[in-house]
Amino acid sequence: MRGILYFSSTGNSLYIAKRAQEALGGKIIYLPKYAGNGEEFDKVILVTPIYSYGMPKHVYEFLPRLDKTKELVVIQNYGGMVGGADFLMRSYCEKLGLNLKSIFVIQMPENFTTTFTVPKFYIKSTLKKADKKISDVIEKIKSGAECLPKKKKTKEQKYFKNMSNWHVIGQRFCVSEECVKCGKCVKICPVGNISFKDGKPVFEDKCVACLGCYHRCPQKAIRYKNKKKKDRYVNPNISESDIGKDF
Predict the structure, then answer these.
(1) 98-117 pLDDT, tens per residue?
(2) Of 8, 10, 92, 129, which is least packed with CB atoms within 10 Å of its CB?
(3) What is the pLDDT of residue 115?
(4) Residues in contact with 27: Cβ distance below 8 Å, sequence separation at least 6, in sequence order
(5) Angle, to 10 degrees, between the axis of helix 85-95 and the axis of helix 156-164?
(6) Kind of pairing between the strands at 71-78 and 43-49
(7) Is there a contact between 69 and 97 (Cβ–Cβ < 8 Å)?
C-alpha cells in the first residue's frame, strides 16, 4: 500500500493528497499525528508546502526517521517563491540517505497573508492552473518517471534563520472581542501552542508559522499584530473540517 503523508494548515496540501489518492490509491496520513517511519508502506508520497524557501518543521523532523528502503516521492507546493526549496529538499534527503525518486513543485494560492490580501480572481486562476499541474504530476508518478531538480542556488541560510524565528509569529497573535471561546484554535494547532487562560486563547512560543488558527477561526477573531483584517483562506476544494484527518 502507498502512504500519502501530508502537512497542511489551510488545505492546499490535503487537496493534492486527495487527488493523488483518487488516482493512485493508498492511505492519507496527517504528518503531525504520525509517529511511524513509513515501514508499513510500499512507497511514500510526501505532500508539503514550502515554508520560507524550505519545509515545515514537521517535515524537517520526520524525514530523518523515514525508512531508507522506501521509495520516496515529494510534492511541494508554494504560494510565493520556490527559492531553491526543491533542491534544498533533494540535498537534505540525499544527506539522510533516503531513497528519493522524484520531487515535483506545484503553485497553489498563497496563504501567508497576514499583512497583504490576495485578489480572489488570482486565487481562482491559480487553482485552475494547479489542477492541470496536479494531473500532470500524477501521470508522471504513474509512469514511474524520475524527476529531480538540478543543482541550483538555494536560500538555505535564510530558511534556517527564518525557522529559528517562527515562534515569534505566535507571539504576535491576539484575539479580538469577536472570539466566542469555541476552542477550535486550540484543537487544530499542530504543536499545542495555544491554550485557554482566563477564558481566552493564549499564544505561547512554539509556533511553527502554519497560520492554521489565523485562517480557520470561525469568527476571524485571531489578529496578527492586532490588525483588523477580514480576508482568510481555506482551499475551496476540500472540507475545512477534513484538514488534520487521515483518509
Answers:
(1) 999 999 999 999 999 998 89
(2) 129
(3) 86
(4) 1, 2, 3, 4, 21, 41, 246, 247
(5) 90
(6) parallel
(7) no
Closest to 26 in 3D by CA, of 10, 50, 47, 42: 42
pTM: 0.97
In whole angstroms, what is the distance from residue 131 CA to residue 108 CA?
Answer: 9
| Amino acid letter, residue 45 | I
Taking only the tens of pLDDT, the chain with its 247 residues reads: 999 999 999 999 999 999 999 999 999 999 999 999 999 999 999 999 999 999 999 999 999 999 999 999 999 999 999 999 999 999 999 999 999 999 999 999 999 999 889 999 999 999 999 999 999 999 999 999 999 999 889 999 999 999 999 999 999 999 999 999 999 999 999 999 999 998 889 999 999 999 999 999 999 999 999 998 889 999 999 999 999 999 9
* Grid cell of 45 as nine digits: 508520497
The vertex-67 CA angle with 79 and 20, nearest 5°, equals 40
Q: Can you tell me the distance from the alpha carbon of 66 to that of 60, in angstroms, rounded to the nearest whole number?
A: 11
Residue found under cell 487544530: 188
DSSP labels for the chain? -EEEEE--SSSHHHHHHHHHHHHH--EEEEGGG--S-STT-SEEEEEEE-BTTB--HHHHHHGGGS-TTSEEEEEEEESS--TTHHHHHHHHHHHTT-EEEEEEEEE------SSS---HHHHHHHHHHHHHHHHHHHHHHHHT----PPP----HHHHHHHHHTHHHHHHTEEE-TT-----HHHHH-TT--EEEETTEEEE-S---S--HHHHH-TT--EEETTB--------TTS-GGGTT---
